[in-house]
Amino acid sequence: MGFVIKPNINSSSFHLSGRSFFIRRRQKKKKKKTRRGEMAEDQKKKSCRFWIWALSSVVFRLILISFPGNLNLSSRPEVSTPLTSIRRLAEGYWLKQASMSPYAGSMYHGSPLLLSVLGPLTVQRIKGQPSHLLCSLVFVIADILSAMLLRGIGKKLQMAYGLNARLLGLLKSSRDKGILPCGDIAALVYLWNPFTIVSCVGLSTSPIENLAVILALFGAVTRRVPLAAFGLVIATHLSLYPATLTIPIVIILGYGLDAPPIKLFLQTRSVENEESSTPTVSKQPKLKQTTRLPFLWKTVAHFLFWVLLWSLCVLVLCAFSLNKYGGLDEMFKRTYGFILSIEDLSPNIGVFWYFFAEVFDFFRNFFLIVFHVNILFMLLPLAIRLKHRPCFLAFIYLAISSILKSYPSVGDSSLYLSLWALFVNELVDMKFSFFLFCGYLGISLLSPVMHNLWIWRGTGNANFYFGNAIGYACFQIVFVVESVSAMLNHDRALKRCINTNHGEVKN
Amino acid sequence: MAADNRYEEEEEVRTDDGSPITKPRPIVRLGIFLVAHSPVFSVVFSAAGVLALLLLPLLAKNTYISENALMPGSARSMLSNRDASDGSKLVKDIKNFRLNHEGQVQRLIGKYMSEMVAEVYYQKFQPEGNQFHPLHFFSGPASYTLLGNVSCASYGVNVVGIIRAPRGDGKESIVLVTPYDFINGGDYEDLSLGIVSSLFSLLSRVTWLSKDIIWLVADSRYGDYRPVAAWLAEYHTPSFKVSDLLKCDELNTADNFRRAGTVAAALILKVDGRSERFEDILSIYADASNGQMPNLDLINVVNYLAVHRQGFHVKVEKVVSLLSSSWLKIVGEIFEAVGKVANTLNPDWKFGIPAAEYIEGSATLASSLYSQALGIPTGPHGAFRDYQVDAITLKISPGFPPDSKARQHDFFLRGSQLLEGTIRSVNNLLEKFHQSFFLYVLTSPSKFISVGVYMIAFALLVASLPMVAASLYVDGCKALTKSTHNSAENFKSWKWLDAAKQVFALHLLGFIVTLLPYFICQVPGQHSPRNRSIMWGTTSSLLLVTFVTIPGCSPFSSRLHGTNWAILKSVTISAAFIGLCLMSIINFATAEIGALLLVPTCLLAQPIKPALRSRRVKSLLGAFCSMVLVTIGFPVIFFAITKGLVGEGLVGLSLGGEFWTWLESLWAWKSATYLYIGMVHLPCWLLCVCILFHPS
């Protein structure tokens, strides 16, 4: 009965998506014209389906919002952290109304701007409706906006993918059915991800943070420089970690969207040149090959200028709203200081709380530095290796910061998971997808059970919940590593594909 | 799960790259080896799991006192004959009181308590109806307080007395509970009051007390559990609304509910029916809801004092029918023989136990597992566990008729000395119980199996699931790659998505079916359980039919999508694995019994069509086995079979009624087993049926 695995057999069954498109295209070239009409219809159908699914996700959210008391999601440590909890925000708003500093009593640690925007909504009640209804509606709207922006990003990326494939000679036609509509997929992944739904219904402010991040990426991808700068500044202001996104956004603005490595384009071009130049007329001087893309300094400077302008605006507004309560000093101390010094050790799905509850006080500063530098260490190597794919780089940065954040929540995971879906075309051959899916599912179901065992039943202890957090971190790491290696493999496969193509042409 | 899966694919990568094949790491090779030979290993692991379960009584350890502060039995008992005669006097008075119909017995007890310098108050509560709240498992205990329509027709009155500790600061307390039916309490119930009142009269005088003592005489007219739960709810969540119950009676209970700090431990004392033996028998009940147990130290202290100081015969519950079973006897004899052989080889190996002891241990273990798996508390101590208080019920069956005065005095003396010793030990504690185990099963009052040992049996049983899932996944992927060589899409690693959609759809169906009883209970009018079960059955099957007809999520339409059954089975097995692992953390016993049913069913499920076509004996036998397993695996049939084994044969519609009542008891007690049946077992069973009839 048992079968013996022969690894060699599998290598023949490996198919690169791009290559198979190519072969398929050539076979079906003749039928193309008749199919064009069908295709348009098909696309219409697809977009119709997308809207149905998107709408149903909104309806689902609204249903869940109508009975939040029974779900009690807003008190789950997985959903709301000290930074994103709406209860704390309401508390801060009350303190401010009572002419006290909103940061008094170490309750609120978010932005003062968010306080002025969301604060009044926490107080307002529509009669007969559950409290915080207005806030929930704001979060639903933020989710919808994020999804639409993701769709926009995806459309751009899809176009770039098609264009690059054509430039490399892997696709001959202008339209290809084989390219997945990654924008639609990403938007739906964002809208239907249980993590997003839970953090939207559970009244955490992470939908708004996610919206700011996605806005920054959208601005960069569509080359709306002020918008990108605005998103980046707001995202950084809200949760500090998106500051790392400066690198990918600068690369997007400077070099352009995700593309295969520049070497490949040069290779194809040189081969084409060889073909076109007949051996008899070989004296024609060869085109000078540039091995580097031009970097658009002007756009980047423009972007930096806008970043400065927006940050100035935000700082002035914050200073204005806090001028009686300690000003900006107090704000930096209570928001960024709170994030960096990990004062709140209440359990969450990250790995920091347990460690810093255990560590001796005189080592604390040392380990704080070590833990935070972890993120910074990875920025540069990744930027060098993935500089040709800046959007993917942004996804990797967000995933890493969601693993190594001081107060992570499932809202952060929902953001990077939906960004990941933007690269379905490239990551079609990602390995361990089923393993990772089962892992994420198992961990997210296990987490409330472990929490219950520890907090309510008292038969477990902190190690139970922390073990779960470690498992979650491991799965995230495997996920990131696999995504990166799948992307690099994709590039390698492209190269091999081009080489074989040229071999065929020469023969 | 698919760690093996990983290894498998890692192997592929190496060859894909075209790089020279390097030897993979040993652990990777081990994984590949396991996955490649998964049929053999799955049989071996499952058999080892069952064997480990049978071996558990042998592996039980003797209990020991883990917390040093307890020091049971180190102090001399201070209880005198005078205290015991106080108890006798109370019992006599209650008897007279009841004969003369002089009013409420509660008042008499209250009077006695206040004579012993205790603070006394009365608490009124209402019996609670059956409510559907299985999902309350994840929330705190106090989230369901009903202040709705109150009627004076039925309510109970608890009497509570508190002795303040001379050395305490009023922040900690120990609770003594005596369930007592004030309307028609029997002679034996009076004895429990006698024992506690003897103790109470002593405790009001002693100087060593550092935790307040609360004596709760629970009105057990509406069951033992409800009054205790009502008292605990009010104790822990003060409500500032004045209940309408207060106006119901002349007994003034208003505004005097008193508290005494966090409860360190609780002892529930019951005296009932005469024992068959001459000596007094003490039975210990410890299972709270969802298989939670009190700290083992509490049981140890009581057991130590009862056996070594007071000479009670201590026992825990066991399945009586197992004691006479012949197959268990054979197994026990085999183990005994093996133990003897091992002992001759090396005198240090002492794992053999006599066959009789093995049978006793197995019967107790079976009972332990059964009551934990049901998730229904075995007594009022279950109410305490919801507030993280360790509590046990001590049920004493005296070996004498209730009117024997001479032995009654001695009985009071011994009973209250046992309680005194226990309270003295708990009184020594500086922290709450935490040293010893919370997760264990008992095989005798002085033997236990800890979580580290009993998890092995479960782990071995489910270990085969990820292996088989990985090997099926690899198989399925290969088959799909071959069949869809020229099709439009060739997602190498996303072939499981279709199968996952189907599995998800059926789990969603399971979730809806689990919630259906809530709506069925809302249907107006009185319905017998049988009718309700018919309603449930028909709505569920209608739902199933609609689900099957929706294209895309029905497993039967999978031919269109090109999914083959191997991947569907792989995803099913993964879902079962996740479900079982989750359940093993919530309630081990349920997961163990569930795994015994689900693992073979999932592993053997294979399409029967090819088996019938091939007409080979081996495949026909396999098909037959899987059919039998699937039949047994259906919850209703399994319920009928277990009922049949116990001796109540049930057929036809009465079975549905019985099953409904059983399930109703599960959700009324907030048992997670109900959720397990509806959301893990049922969907996986349905998926196995789908695989059986897969049109491959």
TrEMBL record, chain A:
Main subcellular localisation: endoplasmic reticulum
Pathway annotation: Glycolipid biosynthesis; glycosylphosphatidylinositol-anchor biosynthesis
GO cellular component, one term: endoplasmic reticulum membrane
Keyword hit for tRNA-binding: no
Keywords: Endoplasmic reticulum, GPI-anchor biosynthesis, Membrane, Transmembrane, Transmembrane helix
Keyword Zinc: no
Intracellular or extracellular location(s): Endoplasmic reticulum membrane
Domain of life per record: Eukaryota
GO biological process: GPI anchor biosynthetic process
Transmembrane segments: 133-153, 195-218, 230-257, 303-323, 335-356, 362-384, 391-410, 430-450, 462-481
Leader peptide range in chain numbering: none
Pfam families: PIG-U
Membrane topology: Multi-pass membrane protein
PANTHER family: GPI TRANSAMIDASE COMPONENT PIG-U, PHOSPHATIDYLINOSITOL GLYCAN ANCHOR BIOSYNTHESIS CLASS U PROTEIN
Recorded family membership: Belongs to the PIGU family.
Protein name in the entry: GPI transamidase subunit PIG-U
UniProtKB/TrEMBL annotation, chain B:
Transmembrane regions listed in the UniProt entry: 30-56, 451-474, 503-521, 533-551, 571-599, 620-641, 673-693
InterPro entries recorded: Gaa1
Superkingdom of origin: Eukaryota
Pfam families: Gaa1
Region listing for Disordered, in residue ranges: 1-20
Keywords of the record: Membrane, Transmembrane, Transmembrane helix
Stated name of the protein: Glycosylphosphatidylinositol anchor attachment 1 protein
